[in-house]
Every structure is written in C-alpha cells, then in structure tokens.
Design goal:
Chain lengths: ~450, ~290
C-alpha cells in the first residue's frame, strides 16, 4: 500500500475569512440551528479532532493496481486537482463553492492516497487507517461498486462523510445506501433508461441480446436494468448472459457461447481492463463482425485502449465526456485546467472526483462547520449545485445526485478532430425523469448520529 | 447453453487454452521440482516476457524478433535472479523462499508500471496468423490456432532437452535427489542456475506468445499465476508431463463448465484441484514423497 501526504502553505487570510464565514453562516441559516462555535457540537466520528488544527485531512483510496488501475489513476488526478484548487481558491472551485476563499473554512486541505486494487477489504483498511491515524474529515473511494458499498458501511459506522468516486451499481444509493454516503455518478438503472430508448430508436424492436457481465454488484444490477428495459419496452430477448469473474484472464469460452447464441447485439457490461480485454477478444473471435457492440455504461479509457476502430458506432451512456466543454462553461474550465496539469483530457472518473470534493467543500462552507450532521443537512437540502454538467442536486431520500445522462456514440477514426476525440455527444438527457423512485431499490439511510 | 456445435467448440477451446497453461506451468514445475523453490514471481516473469517482446516489437515491428527478445531477456533475468538472490535461499525455510519470490514479483510488476503505466499495450499477431479461420464447426482466431502449434513445438523442445540430453538427465536426477547428484561430483549449483534460467525462459516465451491473445498490463501475470499453480498441483509437482496433462485438464474444465454455467468455471477448477489433493496428493503424474 502506498501513501503520500501532501500539503500547501496555510493561508492566514483564509483562516480569518473562514472564521468570519463560520460565524456568518450559523447566523444566516437559523433552520440548521448551528451554534457559532464548533465546540458546542458533541463529538462524532473524527469531529472535532480532525478539524481542530490549521489543516484538515481527506482520505483517498483508489485502485492503482489490478483491472481498474487505469481508471483509478485518473480519479486520483481529479481529486488532486480539486484539492489544489480548493487550497488556492481557483475560480472553478469558487464557481461551484461560492463561499470558498482558500482551503475549507480557511483550513488547508491535506490528503493521503492509498491503493486498494479494487478490493473492498483493502479499501476499508486504507480508510480505517486514514480515520484513526489522520482523523480524516471526509474520504473518497469506489471505482468498483463492491468497494463503494463496503465504504458506505464504514462511513456509517465511523460517522465520517464518504463522497463516492465511481460506482455504477443500483445498490450504492439503493439497498446499501447510508446517511453518510453521497454519490455523484448515475447508476445502472439510469444508464439503461438513458441509453435504452436510443438503442430502440437506432436498431428497432425484437432483437436478441447477449450480455457479458462482471460477477459482482455493478455487473448484476446494470445487466438486470438493461435487460428489463430492452425486454419490456422493445420486446428484445436475452440470448445469453455470460457472467465472468472480475479480472478474468481470458474470455474465449464466454465469447464462444456468445458466438453460438445467435444474438444480434453484444452488450458488454465489463469495466476497466476487463472491458478492454473482452472487447479485443470479441474482435479476435469474429463476434464483433456478426454482433453489434453496445456498452451500456462507458468505461473511461476504453476507446483509447482498444482504438477507435472498435468503438466506432458503439452507443454508450456516460457521466462526462470532455467535448461537453462546448456546452458547459465549467466543463471548459475543468478540461483546460486538467489538460494543462496532466497533459490529456480528463475522463469521467476524474470529473466525478473533482466534483465530489467541490460539493463537499461547498457543503462545509455553507454549513460553516465540519460537524458531519450539519454538512449532511446542507447536502440533503436539495439546493442547486453548479457543476461541469450544469445544475445538479442531491436527492435527500437516497443521497443520489440528480444529474444529466450523457449519451455518446463512437466516432469513425476519420471523423476524429484530434487523437482524443473518440466520442460524439448525441444527447444530454435530464436525469430526473430517467431515475427510479428513491425507495424503489429499498434505500434506508440510517441515523445521522 | 448446450448444443453440439457449442460443445465441440468449447472442447477445442479447452485444448487451446490448456496448451498455453501447460507451457506456462512447465517452467514453474521444472524450477520447483529441481530447486525446491516455489517461484511466486513466475507470473511477473510471464508479464516481463510480454513487455520485453512488446519493446522489441515497437522497435522492429517483427513478431519473430519480439518472441526472441521476450524469451532471451527472461533467460538473462532468470540467471541473474538465481545468481544474485535465489541461491542464497536454497538452504532457508520455504516461507523465506515464498516471501522473496513474492517480493521480487511485486518489484517486477511495479517497475513495469512505472515505465509503461497501467494502460494496455498490444502486440498484434503477425499478419499471416491474424484473422479468423473456419474449422467447419466454428470460427476460431487464427492466432490461437497457431499458438497451439507453437506451444506443441516448444513443449517438444523442452521434452527433448529434459529427456534426451545429458543436461536433462542431470536435471531429472536433481528433481529426484539433488544430494545424490551433488555427491556424484556434478556441480549441482551450476545445474540449478541453468534450470532456473530455463524455467524463466519458458515463462518469458509464454508471456510474449500470449501477448497478442491477452493484451499486456502490468497485472497480466497475477491471474495466470493462480491458474498455473492449479495446473501444477493437478498434474503433479515437478512433473513435466504432469504440467502438460494438468494444463489440458484445466483448459477443458474452464471451457466445458462455462458452457453450462460460466459463473462456475473457476469454482470447478478449484474443486478439481481439491479433489486431486484429497485423492492423490502428489498429483496425477507426480511421484509420492517428492517435494
């Protein structure tokens, strides 16, 4: 496990400004009944120990090894950029968190990063250490929904805020939702409701689909959501559902079953390197010549890794694609800042992590305290938040962000304007009408204290 | 999803998969059988072979050069590793050997990740072996068919080296009783170095031959290592024919089970290993009492 701790110089002015903001916010929001002094709150989780000094610590656990390593590194970059912007009071952070000056409530944000290899037990160990040793006031992690669900439980038990990085399972803000966890990205059911109509419009009704599904919560819920949507609304049938373990070294036997299934479409639900390998092998086995590839939930870096020849004409739902900079000013600011620092266009994991820390900073600044129940109340208030995909808000009932679903289609290599121009944004669908009712997946948030 | 066409396809795929597993496992089993060292860096060496080949391919565009580079680089890595590290661990407990090889494996993986990142690297199949071939009952990637042939040739070469040369005779004698070989005046440590080199070379060769099939990432050896151990346990530790038989059995179990319920493919593989351990602890072709 690797860990790094970073810091920037503390801004004294920021501290003073934040102290004023702290007092001001408590007066301005009487409905929250916030006392002016932090000490008046009872101790809970890492509060007040984690925020009593001149800096606060945030914990980041990400896969830097294993099948989701590429996506994990992108997420880390998004987190680092957000923290850098928070500490320096960058205009992009100020656009999302207007009360931010420098740091959060004037306190410098320090952070640690640990590798979890997308394994839930490692992620829980990493964050437990950040909580006990560094008194982390908030943490992020996920990439694998199995990790996100495990961290949800940890957050609720330890009473420390958890801003999920990437997690596409219905369960994360469904049956496994918690009061202390908030999710930015949409999930299987919403992806299906977003990309489903586009598929039916493009390809018609009564088709046969083969699914290639990773064997854990993300795979099962996304597969089920897609199948339900297409079969119910389009009269599609399921030719076969091939469930493969996470990190499978070879897909030949699954692909032979798919090749022999008589399906018209291959819906590849795999993610990370699994998506890369299974797509490349589907090409090798001639499956992609006979069946049309659909990727219900787009994997960051997939197009870069398999090449535009394989993603050409492929429909996918995604959280963010960098060409949204043409539509949203904040997306333009984010893409430019990210590209300048890291030398490539951010994928949606980086965007998710950036936004999550920005939303957290905004909530703390608005609450005027790090006291978790107060921060949760602000996040649950349903207040409009500015983001790189327009106005969004968290749903109080399940802590799911209500945000647009971006439908993309893979460009022909000849149509690409530059080497990173893989996807064409077809539609940006408002999220709310696509989402299921908050209690449809059995969410019970649990107690705040 | 049982149909006869699918059954025949999966049987064939099991053979192709098994051939690759046999090749990777043979290196592991030779090293363990002769040196008594369970090399947990074997998966990482498989990966190194792939990356060495990838570098050579990027430089020359030649598949043949890539295969030669991947193989020879690992021969060198194996010999250096044996001389510098492994030889100091022959007399130490198995736990120490496991830890040091496990540690070396992590170092190899992270060094590669440092230089190449985690992004997938691709070594394309040579043009004459790319595309799809119709076998009548199914279509199969041409390169995978070629791999069956390549692996068969490699295994025959290994067989000749082990069973038809003086070196092979010494190696096999070393597997049975290295103390006796030493007593007969043969420098058993020199033999150990050569054996480790050959074992590493087999891993490197498998790594680069496999590269067009699996796509390279620094973690590619991790899952392979687990399967390789299963193969060695099923076939019998230290047995070269055992590695071949174990590989083929493992390939067929994965393929046939996945036809019935893919979720159970790896469960059945481990169940088979457990069954072998219970009924025949020394493996199908292993010799009782051999370490």
């Amino acid at each position: 496990m690797t860990q790094r701790v970073h810091s920037n110089a503390l801004s004294r002015r920021g501290l003073l400004q934040a102290s004023t903001a702290l007092a001001g916010a408590s007066l301005a929001t009487p409905f929250l009944a916030l006392p002016a002094l932090a000490e008046d709150h009872p101790a809970i989780g890492t509060y007040p120990a984690g925020s009593s000094g001149s800096s606060v610590f945030v914990g980041i656990t990400c896969p830097r090894t294993g099948t989701y390593a590429v996506q994990g590194e992108d997420e880390i970059k998004g987190c680092e950029l957000a923290i850098e912007h928070i500490n320096s009071g960058h205009p992009l952070i100020k656009a999302i968190s207007p009360k931010t000056t420098k740091g959060v409530l004037g306190k410098e944000v320090k952070y640690g990063i640990a590798d979890d290899g997308a394994k839930p037990n490692s992620a829980v160990q990493n964050i437990s250490r950040f909580i006990t040793e560094n008194k982390a006031v908030v943490f992020t992690g996920g990439t694998s929904s199995a990790v996100a669900v495990a961290l949800n439980k940890l957050a609720q038990r330890e009473k420390v805020l958890f801003m999920t990085s990437i997690s596409g399972s219905n369960d994360t803000t469904g049956k496994d939702c918690v009061r202390y966890g908030f999710r930015e990205c949409f999930y299987g059911q919403t992806a299906a409701a977003g990309v489903g109509p586009v598929l039916l419009k493009a390809f018609g009704k009564g088709k046969k689909a083969a699914y290639l599904t990773p064997d854990y919560t993300y795979g099962h819920t996304v597969q089920k959501s897609m199948e339900e949507y297409l079969n119910k609304n389009g009269g599609w049938t399921t030719a076969t559902n091939q469930v493969a373990p996470l990190g499978a070294p070879d897909y030949s036997s699954y692909l032979l079953n798919i090749a022999n299934s008589g399906a018209d479409f291959l819906l590849n639900i795999n993610w990370g390197h699994d998506a890369v390998l299974s797509t490349q092998q589907a090409k090798q086995f001639g499956v992609l010549g006979k069946q049309k590839l659909v990727i219900p939930y787009q994997t960051p870096f997939l197009a870069r890794e398999v090449g535009a020849e394989l993603t050409e004409g492929v429909y996918a739902a995604t959280d963010f694609w960098w060409t949204l900079e043409d539509k949203y000013p904040l997306a333009k600011m984010f893409v430019e800042a990210f590209d300048k620092k890291y030398g490539y266009k951010p994928e949606w994991g980086a965007n998710a992590c950036y936004l999550q820390f920005a939303f957290w900073a905004n909530a703390v600044e608005t609450a005027g305290t790090f006291y978790p129940p107060s921060v949760i109340k602000v996040l649950e208030s349903g207040a409009k938040l500015q983001s790189t995909v327009g106005e969004v808000h968290f749903r109080p009932e399940d802590h799911q962000l209500v945000r647009p679903v971006v439908i993309v289609r893979g460009k022909k290599p000849a149509d690409m304007k530059n080497k990173e121009d893989f996807w064409e944004v077809l539609e940006v669908l408002p999220g709310e009408p696509l989402m299921q009712k908050p209690d449809a997946f059995g969410c019970k948030l649990g107690e705040t204290t | 999803m049982f149909t006869w066409a699918n059954f025949v396809s999966q049987m064939f795929n099991g053979l192709a998969l098994g051939a690759l597993l046999a090749l990777i496992s043979s290196g592991l089993t030779i090293i363990y059988g002769t040196l008594g060292v369970l090399n947990l860096a074997h998966g990482a060496m498989f990966m190194l072979g792939g990356y060495a080949g990838y570098v050579a391919f990027e430089a020359t565009g030649s598949y043949i050069v890539a295969v030669a580079a991947g193989t020879l680089f690992l021969l060198v890595v194996g010999i250096v590793m044996e001389r510098v590290v492994i030889r100091h661990f022959y007399g130490r407990p198995h736990e120490d050997q496991l830890l040091v090889t496990f540690g070396l494996g992590i170092v190899f993986v992270e060094v590669v990740r440092f230089f190449f990142s985690s992004l997938t690297k691709t070594v394309p199949a040579p043009p004459m072996m790319s595309g799809i071939t119709s076998l009548g009952f199914m279509f199969y990637p041409t390169y995978r068919l070629a791999v069956v042939g390549i692996v068969a040739v490699a295994l025959i070469v290994l067989y000749i080296v082990l069973y038809r040369t003086k070196l092979g005779m010494i190696v096999r004698a070393g597997i049975e009783d290295s103390l006796m070989v030493d007593s007969l005046g043969i420098d058993v440590y020199k033999v150990f170095m050569v054996v480790f080199g050959i074992g590493a070379m087999a891993a490197g060769f498998a790594g680069i031959v496999n590269a067009p099939v699996v796509s390279l990432t620094p973690d590619v050896g991790e899952a392979i290592l687990v399967q390789t151990f299963v193969v060695v346990v099923i076939g019998g530790v230290g047995s070269f024919p055992g590695a071949v038989l174990g590989g083929l059995i493992a390939g067929e179990i994965i393929s046939i089970t996945s036809m019935i319920d893919p979720g159970y493919a790896y469960v059945m593989l481990f169940a088979a290993m457990t069954l072998v351990l219970l009924l025949r602890p020394h493996g199908l072709l292993g010799v009782r009492g051999r370490e």
